[in-house]
């Protein structure tokens, strides 16, 4: 059975893209077949797995707006078992172009349904907003992973996110679950990080992953080389923790 997970938080810079790339690559390394779906117009997941956007023939925009079959948009990454439907800047127009279209909230869902049987996991990297692309992602997904940066105001904005999740559950996707909450970018040298962990655990309880992602320079360097951490520096702390996270995600199923 395949599982579709949206990686979402409308705050930018909390680790959604880093988690999509590296959870995806780690699951693939553990032998799972993984499809990344990049639905952020910035396309950082796309370049982060080594796809040159200039070479992309069909991107997620073509799939959800122009009815291109998702199979025709799938690209292979350098990692075995890891494929991606890329995003290019074309997608920036989609938020507006989708507004007057029929079944605008379920377009991504319909497309993913056509290919999900080929994969164990489909991970959707959401944009930093609660707009129509994120609603499409939540409608397509079985569950969400919410990355939360271990910083001041960590919980700020989460009530809006949870409200959007509830609205999608009510109107579009009754079965949507919270897969897990992932604490990211922990700076172990500060007390603040520890406080945030406690606060988030109080709020989300057992939904919080035991794996906590520390700040790790190698994780921030890897994207500029177009590589997930596991191929950029397999011995780094970043590679180790994302592998731990992948094992945790697999255990839940
Ligand atoms: P989002 O997709 O939520 O906007 P990103 O995954 O792009 O967030 O992360 C924002 C920035 O922080 C990027 O430059 C990324 O390389 C960096 N980053 C993400 N996670 C870590 C980490 N654990 N350690 C160090 N840098 C990180
Ligand atoms: Mg991102």
TrEMBL record:
One Pfam family name is AAA_31
The AAA domain extends over 2-178
- Name of the protein this chain belongs to: AAA family ATPase
Organismal lineage = Bacteria, Bacillati, Bacillota, Bacilli, Bacillales
């Amino acid at each position: 059975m395949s599982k579709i997970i949206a990686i979402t938080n409308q705050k930018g810079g909390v680790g959604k893209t880093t988690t999509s790339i590296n959870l995806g690559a780690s699951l693939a390394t553990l032998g799972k077949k993984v499809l990344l779906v990049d639905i952020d117009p910035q396309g950082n997941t796309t370049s982060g797995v080594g796809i040159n956007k200039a070479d992309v023939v069909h991107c997620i925009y073509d799939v959800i707006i122009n009815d291109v079959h998702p199979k025709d948009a799938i690209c292979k990454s350098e990692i075995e078992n890891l494929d991606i439907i890329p995003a290019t800047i074309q997608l920036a127009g989609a938020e507006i172009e989708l507004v007057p279209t029929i079944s605008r909230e379920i377009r991504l869902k319909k497309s993913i349904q056509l290919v999900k049987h080929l994969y164990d996991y489909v991970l959707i990297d959401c944009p930093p907003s609660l707009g129509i692309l994120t609603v499409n992602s939540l409608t397509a997904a079985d569950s969400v992973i919410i990355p939360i940066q271990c910083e001041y105001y960590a919980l700020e904005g989460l009530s809006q996110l949870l409200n959007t999740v509830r609205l999608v559950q009510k109107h579009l996707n009754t079965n949507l679950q919270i897969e897990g909450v992932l604490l990211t970018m922990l700076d172990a040298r500060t007390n603040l990080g520890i406080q945030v962990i406690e606060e988030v655990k109080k709020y989300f309880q057992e939904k919080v992953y035991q794996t906590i992602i520390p700040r790790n320079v190698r994780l921030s360097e890897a994207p500029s080389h177009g590589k997930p951490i596991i191929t950029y520096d397999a011995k780094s702390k970043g590679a180790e923790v994302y592998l731990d996270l992948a094992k945790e995600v697999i255990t839940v199923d």
